[in-house]
Specification:
The chain is mainly beta and 506 residues long. The protein folds into three domains: 164 residues, Sandwich (Jelly Rolls), CATH 2.60.120.380; 223 residues, Metal-dependent hydrolases (TIM Barrel, Alpha-Beta Barrel); 106 residues, Immunoglobulins (Immunoglobulin-like). The chain has five helices and 29 strands. The strands form four sheets. The protein has a 15-stranded mixed beta sheet that branches. Helix 2 links the parallel strand 11 and strand 12. The chain starts with 11 loop residues before the first helix and ends with a strand.
């Protein structure tokens, strides 16, 4: 229902005119229209309020059209919805929100997207000079805008919402000037070297509680060389990371593409690049379309926390389009163990997607860099880091105190993580692992048949392990470092994990 006179409502003909364009993306709601700026004054404001109810058998996305006249300086939107108590095991109400400009709401329409805050905020503003984190500053063009409502979960009795839209008239403010992060961090660039970085992080630009400044400070304190900014469904943070990057910290732009069938961080996106998320696993062509878009931009696609238990978080797409799989997300838990076992199953079946691990830190109590990646790259630039990750030349550590080297040799050739050693059948292959900074742990060497060597680390936290195999027995070998300390859901804790070295006969 629109609490305004009939002339302020959009006509049925207007609604039908846009419904075809929306059919693939969601359901159109009755909308509202604003009149021209009142009187001759250059300022003033108008507000409209819309209410409605969504049933429990809802679409993923609803679009509320808003006709905006000329002369608007700022849009402000606030919304609320009922949160009834539900029986144990039931789903309550949770409603996400975002906005598209008159440039359109079609799937993948970069020009139309103007912001998203999911369910993290109940209010946002947009003007030429500024916008609420998660939203993009820019001119308020006259025409048909669309609020997007995403019912994440809906109680059995339905979800009743109220949306208030305020337009403020007047001369536009000075245009926002982006300040993106530089593409290098010369103070940390050591040429070909191992670099430490966390690739799954959030700030107030999506559902995190840290400011960008606080996140950058936490990354520096964790001893990281780089981080990847992965806000949910919005590139707004990429417009301001230049304020917080520096010669000692590389900040790579990204986005956590948060679909209803799983999340996939897109790493190494151009400044302001937005990747659409309005699809499910039932149509993998759409996933392919947007992964291809990321690849054309020089980025990679990461299948995140594939066994996370939150609704819509577990990975349902399969791994054909994933460049990397996040097998360790935050403090070690049962879903990480399940992800490693699933990854092991793919390795056994001959499918290799390189493994990564990230903190997914949202709040100050979440430890940035627990875990993080240690990747071999030709230099500390986004492109060179992506090359290292795609080749699987990385391992995962719980902290910067942990050091690991791992490789295989037949006495002539040497292969490291992500590489292949080809030698004569029957030739001994020596696997060597060195560990430091890991007291109270044990190391494991594993091949496709399971653990082959387990050795405690001495009290100093250091160990060197050598184990001999042959290509007829081991198709690949990987390493783990574990601490015999139980978590709430697992009998021990992961400390470090490597990608495999591959062995083959010639």
């Amino acid at each position: 229902m629109c609490e305004q006179p009939c002339q302020d409502r959009l006509s049925g003909r207007s609604l039908l005119a846009v419904s075809g364009a929306l059919a693939a993306a969601g359901t159109l709601l009755p909308g509202v229209a604003f009149g021209e700026r009142p009187g001759t004054e250059p300022s003033g404001e108008q507000t409209r309020t819309v209410t409605g109810t969504l049933r429990s058998d809802v679409s993923d996305w609803y679009y509320l059209p808003v006709d905006v006249p000329g002369g608007v300086r700022e849009i402000e939107v606030g919304y609320s919805y009922d949160r009834p108590q539900v029986p144990p095991g039931g789903r309550g109400n949770a409603l996400d929100i975002g906005i598209f400009s008159p440039a359109g709401v079609q799937l993948g329409n970069q020009r139309g997207f103007r912001g998203w805050s999911g369910g993290f905020r109940d209010r946002f503003t947009i003007s030429a000079a500024a916008a609420t984190p998660g939203y993009l500053p820019g001119p308020i063009e006259p025409g048909r805008w669309h609020l997007i409502l995403g019912p994440y979960t809906v109680a059995q009795q339905g979800l009743t919402y109220t949306v208030g839209i305020t337009l403020r008239f007047g001369r536009p403010d000075s245009a926002f000037v982006p300040n993106p992060a530089p593409a290098s961090a010369p103070g940390r660039d050591r040429g070909r070297a191992w670099y430490r970085g966390d690739g799954h992080l959030h700030t107030v630009h999506s559902d995190g509680r840290r400011t960008p400044a606080e996140l950058a400070a936490a990354a520096r304190a964790a001893g990281l060389d780089f981080i990847v900014s992965t806000e949910h469904n919005t590139p707004s943070a990429s417009l301001q990371w230049g304020e917080h990057a520096g010669a000692d910290l590389l900040i790579v732009n990204g986005e956590e593409v948060t679909t209803r069938s799983g999340h996939w961080p897109a790493w190494n996106l151009p400044v302001g690049k937005w990747i659409d998320w309005r699809y499910r696993a039932q149509d993998r062509r759409k996933l392919r379309r947007f992964v291809d878009e990321v690849h054309r931009a020089g980025g990679v696609a990461v299948a995140a926390h594939p066994f996370a238990s939150c609704f819509g978080c577990s990975w349902e797409y399969g791994y054909e389009r994933a460049d990397l799989v996040e097998v360790w997300n935050g403090p070690w838990t049962l879903d990480d163990e399940a992800a490693v076992m699933s990854w092991l199953g793919m390795l056994r079946a001959g499918t290799w997607v390189p493994a990564v691990g990230n903190s997914d830190a949202h709040n100050p109590e979440h430890v940035v860099g627990l875990p993080h990646n240690v990747v071999l790259a030709e230099g500390l630039t986004p492109r060179r880091l992506m090359d290292g990750f795609k080749a699987g030349r990385n391992w995962i550590a719980e902290s910067a105190q942990v050091q690991v080297t791992f490789g295989a040799t037949d006495g002539v050739r040497l292969a490291g993580m992500g590489e292949a050693l080809t030698t004569d059948t029957g030739t001994p292959v020596t696997i060597e692992l060195t560990v430091s900074g890991a007291p109270g742990t044990s190391v494991r060497l594993l091949d496709q048949s399971g653990p082959q060597w387990i050795q405690p680390v001495d009290p100093t936290g250091s160990a060197t392990v050598k184990w001999t195999t042959q290509t007829r027995y081991s198709r690949w070998v990987r390493a783990e470092v574990r601490r015999p300390v139980a978590t709430a859901t697992t009998p021990d804790s992961m400390v470090a994990l490597t990608n495999p070295v591959f062995l083959s006969s010639r």
